[in-house]
Amino acid sequence: MDLQGVLPAVRKMKDFEVLLKNDGHSLIILLETRIAQLPQVVQYAKKSGKRVLVHADLINGLKVDQYGMEFLVRQIKVDGIVSTRASVITLAKKSGIVAIQRLFAIDSSAITKNIALIQKSNPDYIEVLPGIIPSVIKEIAEETRIPVIAGGLIKTEDEIESALASGAIAVTTSRRSLW
């Protein structure tokens, strides 16, 4: 899966419905949902020709262990996951789906610790939050040599352009006006 440009991230069902009708995006990232909603939501997205990534840590009612990952891959048929946890990234990679490790750049110590985890889990992509710090995006992209996605606190087209110019291959946003 080649991720690039603006990637729509959905928190609300109204935004999900808008994306189903939007031919400009073939991918939906589900940020928050309940386990009972997930099968139906993913099924609707797939019927609309969309690929679906889920933020595994934010699925209420799901424990993302080996069996939870098996449920996501075999039953729900997600195309990939986002997670802050290296163990979940490792499970996703073993399952053959896209694995995006979310990294919170709160200070230099957190970045150093996260990079060490990333080198062990070897995700397909790294999502850096907040995505409005160009120097951090550049540093993580150069140090890990893993494609970086910028996310969080992105409110303008200028911020999208800045993130992409600093080395991000894509930007996630839940702000509908930026899709």
TrEMBL record:
Known function: Regulates expression of the glpD operon. In the presence of glycerol 3-phosphate (G3P) causes antitermination of transcription of glpD at the inverted repeat of the leader region to enhance its transcription. Binds and stabilizes glpD leader mRNA.
Protein origin, superkingdom: Bacteria
Entry-linked SUPFAM superfamilies: GlpP-like (SSF110391)
Organism from which the protein derives: Gracilibacillus caseinilyticus
Keywords, ordered alphabetically: Glycerol metabolism, RNA-binding, Transcription, Transcription regulation
Keyword Secreted attached: no
InterPro entries in alphabetical order: Aldolase_TIM (IPR013785), GlpP (IPR006699)
Pfam families with a match to the protein in the record: G3P_antiterm (PF04309)
Record protein name field: Glycerol uptake operon antiterminator regulatory protein
